Request: fold
Amino acid sequence: MKPTQLFLVAAASTPLLTHVPAQASDFTYGYQNVNAAYTDTYVVGLQNARKYTEWQTPPATYYGPSANDVQGLLTYRFDFSAPTAAISLKATTQSFNFPSRGDYGYSSMWGSTDGASWQLIQDNPLPASSGPAVASNLFYNQALPGSFLGASSFWLQVRMFEHAANPDGQPPTTSWADAQFSRYDTNRPGNLFQLDVTLAPEPGSITLVGLGLASLILRRRRD
Reply:
C-alpha cells in the first residue's frame, strides 16, 4: 500500500505460529517469501497473477493479481507416491479496502484432489468499511479436513480479485495489489507457507509389521 495510507487490521484467524507437524511427515515443502528460488517448484498455473515487491524496508513481497477487475489464479499441484493420510497447511491471505481511494480486493484458498473439483479452504472476503481503510489478514495453520485425504495428489488454488489497485506502477516497486497471498514484510522467522503430508503406509509394510508382531507373540509364548 502507499506509505501515506494507514489501515486497521480487520480480522485474523489462528495466529501465525511456528509450524510443527503433529508427527514426522513423509513430505514437507515451504518458503519464507515468494522471491525464494524454490517457490515456483510446484506452481502449475499462474493466470492474471504475479509476484510483487513493494518499497518497504524490508520489502513487502507477495503474490497478487496482475490486473484490475479480473480474477487472478495461483495454482499448486503436489503429487505423492501413496494416498495421503494427513495434510497440514500453513498459509496466509490478505484483503484490503480503501474507501477514500476507491480501491479494494479480496482473496480465498481452495483445495482439490484432482484439479477439477474444488472445495473452499478459507475465504477472505472484502473487508466492510464506509470510512477508514481496513485490511483482513487471515492465517491458516492447521490440518486440512478429511475430504482432502486418501488421494495421491493435492492441489491448492489461490483466487484473488481487485479493483482500482496499482498493478502497473513505474518503477515496479510502486505497484501494489489489494488482494494478496503470502505477504512477507517483517523479519518473521520460519516459513510463511508450508505443507506437511503424511502418507498412508503401503499394504505390504502393514503385512510385514503384522507378521513381525505375530512372531514376537509366538516366541514369548514358547518362552
